[in-house]
Structures are given as structure tokens and as C-alpha cells.
């Protein structure tokens, strides 16, 4: 008996434990379920789309919005239009990437360097390995890069390094797992040893608050404003300013992290952070309300292992173990997507507290916290859901039924129906496949005299109803007072002679409005006909989706863009890509649930649109600038630094690579201005022109939605073909001459040529004769002057020689001659010998023959005196020392001494003849 009691007790305890576990699981599921979670837009880029390896270890975004990814196969770059891969020569895996200034630094296995865009628009790599000098690299891979105080720090699991001023220095050895700048300090996580500060001397100082983290490996550090967050694989800590120590963050958040294994942390703003995990995608946590959202494969991600994170202008980029994903973090549009295919295309929905009713092509569903459920009996195609009072009515392909307590009640199953409407007399009218039915309490009957399908109904007044046939037109129906029969059915003719096909009818500002054949009309009661709706004339081609109070949503039927307006000041366009191009074509539907919240039906779910957030977003749009990333013709690629000249034979295929970093405008519009002018939208970042005519071209590119005001211009020239060049045109002109004219021209040309040859020969002979005579005359004149100079010089020498002899004789007889008289005579003789006038005459005549002699001599030897120049001039005339002595009024010995000193000044070799040197060189 005791054994049985103990057994019961154990069973009871087990049940209690199981109940507790179930309770915990239920609570956990409540917090982290994704059954009804509305997700912001998530864009998947698979490895086949970006054409590289699956794993993406790091992401960095530059200031323009260009994405750089460290991929297993190299550096992956996304310019907003196309993905491009640039691999290292070694083919090594790139583990880290960091965009800084105009360089893209990357780290790999025993490899560190940077990429830079070249003139061709491609990226070229510069290795910095040569700067390691005496630093011995082990089997290191560089996993992290960060800029701090104009230097670049990079780490491996073996050491911390610094690159600055073209030098690389090792700061410290150790297992470094992350780096972060906090309060202008560089923090580094050193394995299980805690966090350190890199001081101004590049030495590590222990960061005291991290003492609590010693023993745990720090996986990531994130700083924003004055807060510092540190994550280990299992826990997340924040730095408490008061106690100056790390404290555990929200318990719910750490519970989620413990199960998912933290890998990366990214702060979106002061209130929200992203935690990338290795096992369960990423967690978005709101610090303000402690709300947790989990994003993984079940709600949009390609893979549950997040290797890297970065954010730019509200766009979160995730490098995954298999692919790259992008999510809008604070999107005014959120999605519910049924990935199983069970739901199908949604045609209408109704929002109720804590649940949604969805009408789809597979049935009517209930969506609540527990998930998506098909309402029993609600199978089949459902077109419409209407909430009238407390009734939810479905118009389906086979019947009309009411939903009561999540079960159906058939109202009419004689035929299918399209639409349900409440009349001004509070009667429920149902547009069916065969006419109009009236639901009065639980009694359903058909209105007489209406036997055509009615897709939509609008009341003009209590008894006048407008009905739209799905195919054949629009009808104005006068009903009886009891709404039991049609008094009259008027077929409304169109204004454009085209039949009203699939026309839409509305009540806009108490006016019956008709959208037919892409045009807007309204009913004029005085003329009893349709007329152009002037106020909506600019919206031709735009179908109305929803009107709520004074807010109107239209859809551009050409491209599925949504257009919002209050018909006053507020207006904006919501591009189709914002709804991921998931509208149900031809059956687009939108439902207002409040002044700001709208739901839009999609092919595989629905979207929730916050109008207030959208309008706020419109005032803070970020539009990036497009750029030319490459230009080539059929033969080669051109530099983007200069205007390309494309040969005509290669202009058959001109290709431009264009980039538009990710922004609120995703497409590039272009205008090509030139001999061939064309406009359009760039597809997939590549613009191709074929068979361009020759001439100058100006390509204008601008983001779609900016109306082309702020465009970028790129100019290039297509050269004319060879057969249209100027010289070929001359050839064509010559070939056009007639045969007789050609012969005449040829004969005249020959005659003229012969005449010209004779004239040229005569002119040549005449010129040669004139030149010869002129040359002879000049030579004779020079010879004559030379002779005159020589004669004059020799006469002066003879005169001076005689005077010097007389002077000598007088000096012999000076005892017999009066001393005063003798001195007077000798002075006169000396004056005659050294006459300046005589030298000036000589110098003038000498310069006429040897024009630049003195100038060239002084340039070569600026230290020569006037006496040296005299001696040089006499030597130039090839005079002997004996002939020179009387000209200079000195003895022959004096001339020899002067010649010796002159040689010294000119630094002549002893074997060099001074006279020959002056004659040859000057």
C-alpha cells in the first residue's frame, strides 16, 4: 500500500513537472511564435543570383550605399543593380571586409590589403603583405577590420595589428574576437581574458568593467550613443553607468540567445538591437517595450546561420551561411506570407480583434495567434468578405454564407456571388452570378427583372442602384419601394464608343463615378448621361482601390504602382516593388481598418500598410545617385576618366554598366540624346545600345521618381565609318565627273603639272644663281674687310714699331737732350702707340668680321680683362708675337708672358695651341 502511494506521488510529481514544462513552452511559443507575426520586407539573394559561394563572412557598406561582402570566393560587390565578384589571385577565402575612405580593406589567410576602383570601373587589389617586414605570420586569418583615429586596425585569432602611414605594426599577441569604438576608445575583446582598451601608445590596458566576463569568450561588442553591449555565445550584457560593470540584459532575450547561440550584435537605434545567431536566424529586440521578434527560415530568411550584419538607411543586410538577405527594419509595410501554398491568393479580408478572416481562391480562413485555419465548410473560391453589423458574409464561387462563431451558415447556395452591400434602407443586397438577392433577417429572395451577373453595386439614392456587369456594361436600376423588383433597368452607354468591359463603379463625394476603358466619368443627373470627371482626369489609367474618409488609394493599371491622394495636398506613389510585386493581377483589393492602417491582398498572403508611417517616410526619402560602372563597345572596355571615342565598326553593341546604391528608388531611368535619341528604364543594371549612328551622344541617367531633374551625364562619340570620312567624300566627288570632263581635267592637270615643273625648275635655278651671287658678294666683302683689317693692323704695327724705335734712340741720347723736353716727346710717342681711338677703330672692324667673338669669349671666360681680349683678337687674326708687340706697345717678351697668363686663365692643356684654339672655338 505504501509502495502504491509513493508511486502515485511520483506520477503526480511527474505530471506537475510535465505541466510546468508545457506551460514554459506555451509561454515561449507565445513570445516567439511566427504564426501571425507580420514581417517587414525581406529580400533573398541566393548564391545562384549573386553567382558566388554560399558563405558570406562579413559585410561593409560605404557612405554611398554600395555593399561589400567577404565571400568564400572573394570580394562580392553590389551596386544596387548588379552583383560582381572580384577574387584574389590565390583564390583564398576573404574573411573580413571594411570600407574606409575610397579603399575596401579585406583580410584573408595570411593576406591583408585593399581594393580600389580603377579608371575602367573595376576594382583592383593592392596587397600590403610586404609591410609586415620582420613580423612572422603564422597560420592566421584576419577576421576583423576597423578604422580608428586615421589608422586601420585588424585582428586575427593570433594577434592584433595596426596599419598607418604605409606601415604595419603588431600591437599584441592573443586570441582577439572583436573590436569596437566606445566613447572615443578602441576596445578589443581578447578571447576569454575580457576586454582591453588600446591606449595612445598602442598598448593594451584592461577594461575594468569586463572583469565579470573573464572566463567567457566574448563573441561580439556593439556600442551606440552611451551604451555598450557585449555578447558571449549564450548571454548578452550591457554596461551599467552607475556601477560601471556589465549586467545581464532582459531575461527573455537571454533565454532566446541561449537556445540560438549569439554570433553578431548590431544596434539599429537607441531602442532596438539585432542579434544574429548561429542556429535560429536573428532576433530583433526592442529595449523600450522588451518586445522580441525572431526571423528565421520559417518567416523569410534563406538560412538560420547569420555570419555578418550591417545596416544602411534602414536596410539591414545579413550575410548568411547560405546567401545574403536584406530586411527593412522600420518598414511602414509588413507582410504575412503563407509559404505552404495552402492559403493561395487572397481576394479580400476582414480584421477582427485578435484575428483575421481571409477570402482566398481555396476557401475562407481564420488567422489568429494559433495559426492559419480553414473554416469548416468554407472551401472553394471566395471573392469577397463583408462586415455588415455583426455579420461577416462571404461571397464565394458556389454560395453565399455567413460566418458565425467561426462556422458557416449558408444563406444561398443556388449560385455563386460576387458582392454584398447594405442599402440606405438597411437591407442587405447580394450581387450574384444571376442577379441581385436580398437578405432580410434569415430570408433570402431574388429581385425580379434582373437576370444578369452583378459584380458590384453602388446606391445613388434609396431606390436607385448602379450595378456593374463583369463583362458587358453598367446599369442604372430603379427599384421598387420594397426593393423586391426592378422598376427599370437602364443600360449606360459609354462616351468613347467602346463597350464598358470590366468597369468599376464608385460613390465619390456623393457622385456616381465610373472607371471604364482607363478613363474616369461621372453621372450627370440633369443630362442623364456620363460625362468626363474633370477632377479625376489626371488619374486616367488609375483604378480606385479604396476610399476611406477623404483618403483615396489608386492603382496604376500599367505598372501596378499604388497612388495615394487626399485630392488636396497629400499625394505619393507606392511602387509595386514595395509590395514585392505580389498583387493579385486584375483583382487588386485594399481594406481600411482605421484612419491609418490598411490591408492589401496578395498572391500568397496580405500586407499591412501604416499610412501615417508612410507619409512620414515620404518626407525623409533617401535617393542615391546613379553612376557609370563600366563602358565598352564590341571590341574593348574604355576608361571612365575621359570621353570615349567608339569606332563605328564596333558601335553595333555599346554596353554600359550602371550602379544605383540601394535607396528608396530602385530603378534607373535614362535619356540618350544624339543622332539616335531614346528613353527608358535600365534593366538589371546593364544598358545596351545597338547599331548607334555616328555622332556625339549625351547619356543622362537619374533615379526613377525624380522626374529627371538631377541627372548625371556621360558623353561619348561614335566615330563616322570610313566610307563617310572627308577624304572619301572627295573621292566620291571625283568619281562623279563625266568621262569627257575627267579626260579634259586630266590633260589640263598634266599640262599644268608640266608647266609647274618648268616654272619650279626655272625658279629653282634662278634662286640658286641669286644665292650663289649673293654668297660670292658676301665672301668678297668679308675678304675685303679682312684684308683691310689686316693692312690697317699691319700699318699700325709698323707705325708703332717705328715710334718705339725712335723712343729707344731718344733714350740712348737722353744725356744730350733736355730732360724735360725728352720726357715730353716720349709721352707723345707712348700716347701714339697706345691710342684708344686706334683700338676702337680696330675693334669696330674686327666685330664686323667676327661678330660674336668677344661675347662668346666672355661667356666662356668671364674673368678676362680688356687687355686679354685685345691679345685674343690679335691671336684670332693669326698674328705672331712679334707682330702683336708693337700693337700692344710692349716687348715680344711681354707678349709671351701675357700669352702664358692667358693660357692659365683659360685652363688650356700645355699641348693645346692658343692661336688654333681661339680660331676653332670662337
Q: What features would you highlight for this structure?
A:
single chain, 922 residues, alpha+beta, Methylamine Dehydrogenase, Chain H, Immunoglobulin-like, five-stranded mixed sheet, elongated, membrane, DNA binding, LuxR C-terminal-related transcriptional regulator
Layout: helices, strands, pairs:
Blueprint: H1 2-32, E1 42-45, H2 47-50, E2 56-61, E3 67-71, E4 74-78, E5 83-86, E6 94-100, E7 103-108, E8 111-117, E9 123-127, E10 142-148, E11 151-156, E12 159-164, E13 167-173, E14 176-182, E15 185-190, E16 195-198, E17 204-206, E18 218-224, E19 227-232, E20 236-240, E21 245-248, H3 251-260, E22 262-267, E23 272-277, E24 282-286, E25 291-295, E26 306-312, E27 315-320, E28 323-328, E29 333-337, E30 346-352, E31 355-360, E32 363-368, E33 371-379, E34 382-388, E35 391-396, E36 400-404, E37 407-412, E38 417-422, E39 428-432, E40 436-440, E41 443-446, E42 456-459, E43 464-469, E44 473-479, E45 486-492, E46 504-508, E47 511-516, E48 519-524, E49 529-532, E50 542-548, E51 551-556, E52 562-565, E53 571-574, E54 590-592, E55 597-602, E56 605-610, H4 611-618, E57 627-632, E58 637-638, E59 645-646, E60 653-659, E61 668-673, E62 678-681, E63 686-690, E64 695-703, E65 712-718, H5 726-735, H6 739-812, H7 819-833, H8 836-849, H9 853-860, H10 866-876, H11 881-888, H12 892-906, H13 914-921
Parallel strand pairs: 59-65
Antiparallel strand pairs: 1-28, 2-3, 3-4, 4-5, 6-7, 7-8, 8-9, 10-11, 11-12, 12-13, 14-15, 15-16, 16-17, 18-19, 19-20, 20-21, 22-23, 23-24, 24-25, 26-27, 27-28, 29-56, 30-31, 31-32, 32-33, 34-35, 35-36, 36-37, 38-39, 39-40, 40-41, 42-43, 43-44, 44-45, 46-47, 47-48, 48-49, 50-51, 51-52, 52-53, ...
Helix pairs in contact: 6-7, 6-8, 6-11, 11-12
Protein name: LuxR C-terminal-related transcriptional regulator
Keywords: Membrane, Transmembrane, Transmembrane helix
GO molecular function: DNA binding
Amino acid at each position: 500500500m505504501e509502495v502504491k502511494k509513493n508511486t502515485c506521488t511520483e506520477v503526480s510529481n511527474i505530471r506537475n513537472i510535465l505541466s510546468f514544462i508545457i506551460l514554459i513552452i506555451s509561454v515561449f511559443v507565445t513570445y516567439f511564435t511566427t504564426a501571425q507575426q507580420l514581417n517587414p520586407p525581406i529580400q533573398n539573394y541566393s548564391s545562384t543570383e549573386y553567382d558566388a559561394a554560399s558563405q558570406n563572412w562579413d559585410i561593409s557598406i560605404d557612405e554611398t550605399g554600395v555593399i561589400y561582402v567577404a565571400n568564400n570566393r572573394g570580394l562580392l560587390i553590389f551596386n544596387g543593380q548588379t552583383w560582381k565578384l572580384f577574387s584574389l589571385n590565390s583564390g583564398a577565402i576573404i574573411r573580413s571586409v571594411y570600407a574606409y575612405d575610397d579603399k575596401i580593406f579585406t583580410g584573408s589567410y595570411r593576406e591583408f590589403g585593399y581594393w580600389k576602383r580603377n579608371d575602367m570601373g573595376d576594382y583592383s587589389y593592392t596587397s600590403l603583405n610586404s609591410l609586415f617586414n620582420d613580423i612572422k605570420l603564422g597560420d592566421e586569418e584576419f577576421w576583423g577590420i576597423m578604422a580608428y583615429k586615421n589608422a586601420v586596425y585588424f585582428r586575427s585569432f593570433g594577434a592584433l595589428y595596426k596599419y598607418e602611414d604605409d606601415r604595419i605594426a603588431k600591437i599584441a599577441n592573443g586570441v582577439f574576437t572583436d573590436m569596437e569604438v566606445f566613447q572615443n576608445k578602441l576596445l578589443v575583446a581578447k578571447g576569454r581574458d575580457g576586454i582591453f582598451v588600446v591606449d595612445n601608445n598602442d598598448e593594451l590596458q584592461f577594461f575594468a568593467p569586463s572583469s565579470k566576463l573573464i572566463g567567457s569568450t566574448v563573441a561580439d561588442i556593439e556600442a551606440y550613443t552611451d551604451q555598450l553591449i557585449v555578447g558571449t555565445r549564450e548571454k548578452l550584457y550591457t554596461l551599467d553607468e552607475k556601477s560601471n560593470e556589465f549586467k545581464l540584459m532582459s531575461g527573455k532575450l537571454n533565454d532566446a540567445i541561449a537556445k540560438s547561440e549569439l554570433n553578431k550584435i548590431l544596434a539599429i537605434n537607441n531602442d532596438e538591437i539585432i542579434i544574429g545567431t548561429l542556429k535560429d536566424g536573428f532576433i530583433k529586440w526592442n529595449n523600450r517595450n522588451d518586445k522580441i521578434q525572431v526571423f528565421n527560415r520559417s518567416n523569410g530568411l534563406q538560412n538560420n546561420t547569420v555570419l555578418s550584419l550591417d545596416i544602411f538607411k534602414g536596410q539591414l543586410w545579413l550575410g548568411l551561411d547560405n546567401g545574403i538577405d536584406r530586411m527593412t527594419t522600420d518598414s511602414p509595410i509588413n507582410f504575412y506570407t503563407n509559404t505552404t501554398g495552402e492559403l493561395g491568393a487572397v481576394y479580400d479580408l476582414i480584421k477582427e480583434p485578435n484575428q483575421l478572416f481571409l477570402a482566398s481562391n481555396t476557401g475562407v480562413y481564420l488567422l489568429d495567434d494559433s495559426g492559419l485555419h480553414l473554416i469548416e465548410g468554407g472551401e472553394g473560391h471566395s471573392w469577397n468578405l463583408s462586415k455588415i453589423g455583426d455579420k461577416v458574409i462571404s461571397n464565394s464561387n458556389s454560395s453565399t454564407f455567413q460566418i458565425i462563431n467561426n462556422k458557416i451558415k449558408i444563406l444561398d447556395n443556388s449560385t455563386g456571388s460576387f458582392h454584398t452591400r447594405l442599402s440606405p434602407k438597411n437591407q442587405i443586397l447580394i450581387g450574384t452570378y444571376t442577379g441581385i438577392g436580398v437578405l432580410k433577417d434569415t430570408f433570402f429572395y431574388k429581385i425580379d427583372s434582373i437576370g444578369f451577373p452583378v459584380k458590384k453595386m453602388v446606391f445613388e439614392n434609396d431606390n436607385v442602384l448602379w450595378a456593374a456587369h463583369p463583362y458587358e456594361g453598367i446599369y442604372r436600376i430603379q427599384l421598387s419601394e420594397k426593393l423586391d423588383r426592378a422598376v427599370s433597368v437602364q443600360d449606360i452607354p459609354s462616351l468613347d464608343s467602346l463597350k464598358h468591359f470590366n468597369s468599376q463603379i464608385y460613390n465619390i463625394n456623393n457622385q456616381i463615378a465610373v472607371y471604364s476603358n482607363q478613363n474616369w466619368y461621372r453621372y450627370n443627373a440633369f443630362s442623364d448621361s456620363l460625362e468626363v470627371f474633370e477632377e479625376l482626369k489626371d488619374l486616367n489609367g488609375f483604378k480606385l482601390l479604396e476610399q476611406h474618409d477623404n483618403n483615396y488609394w489608386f492603382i496604376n493599371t500599367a505598372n501596378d504602382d499604388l497612388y495615394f491622394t487626399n485630392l488636396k495636398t497629400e499625394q505619393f506613389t507606392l511602387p509595386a516593388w514595395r509590395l514585392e510585386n505580389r498583387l493579385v493581377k486584375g483583382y487588386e483589393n485594399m481594406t481600411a481598418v482605421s484612419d491609418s492602417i490598411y490591408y492589401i491582398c496578395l498572391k500568397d498572403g496580405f500586407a499591412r500598410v501604416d499610412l501615417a508611417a508612410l507619409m512620414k517616410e515620404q518626407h525623409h526619402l533617401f535617393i542615391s545617385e546613379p553612376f557609370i560602372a563600366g563602358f565598352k563597345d564590341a571590341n574593348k572596355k574604355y576608361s571612365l576618366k575621359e570621353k570615349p571615342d567608339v569606332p563605328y565598326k564596333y558601335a553595333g553593341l555599346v554596353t554600359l554598366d550602371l550602379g544605383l546604391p540601394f535607396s528608396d528608388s530602385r530603378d534607373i531611368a535614362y535619356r540618350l540624346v544624339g543622332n539616335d535619341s531614346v528613353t527608358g528604364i535600365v534593366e538589371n543594371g546593364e544598358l545596351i545600345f545597338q547599331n548607334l549612328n555616328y555622332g556625339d551622344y549625351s547619356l543622362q541617367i537619374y533615379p526613377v521618381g525624380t522626374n529627371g531633374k538631377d541627372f548625371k551625364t556621360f558623353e561619348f562619340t561614335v566615330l563616322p565609318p570610313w566610307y563617310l570620312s572627308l577624304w572619301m567624300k572627295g573621292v566620291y566627288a571625283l568619281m562623279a565627273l563625266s568621262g569627257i570632263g575627267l579626260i579634259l581635267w586630266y590633260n589640263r592637270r598634266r599640262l599644268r603639272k608640266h608647266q609647274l615643273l618648268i616654272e619650279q625648275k626655272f625658279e629653282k635655278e634662278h634662286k640658286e644663281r641669286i644665292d650663289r651671287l649673293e654668297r660670292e658678294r658676301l665672301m668678297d666683302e668679308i675678304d675685303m674687310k679682312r684684308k683691310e683689317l689686316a693692312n690697317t693692323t699691319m700699318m699700325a704695327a709698323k707705325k708703332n714699331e717705328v715710334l718705339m724705335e725712335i723712343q729707344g734712340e731718344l733714350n740712348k741720347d737722353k744725356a744730350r737732350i733736355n730732360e724735360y723736353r725728352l720726357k715730353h716727346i716720349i709721352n707723345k710717342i707712348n700716347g701714339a702707340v697706345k691710342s684708344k681711338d686706334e683700338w676702337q677703330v680696330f675693334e669696330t672692324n674686327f666685330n664686323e668680321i667676327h661678330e660674336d667673338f668677344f661675347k662668346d669669349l666672355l661667356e666662356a671666360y668671364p674673368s678676362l680683362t680688356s687687355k686679354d681680349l685685345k691679345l685674343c683678337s690679335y691671336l684670332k687674326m693669326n698674328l705672331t708675337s712679334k707682330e702683336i708687340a708693337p700693337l700692344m706697345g710692349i716687348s715680344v717678351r711681354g707678349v709671351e708672358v701675357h700669352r702664358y697668363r692667358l693660357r692659365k686663365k683659360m685652363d688650356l692643356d700645355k699641348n693645346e695651341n692658343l692661336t688654333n684654339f681661339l680660331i676653332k672655338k670662337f
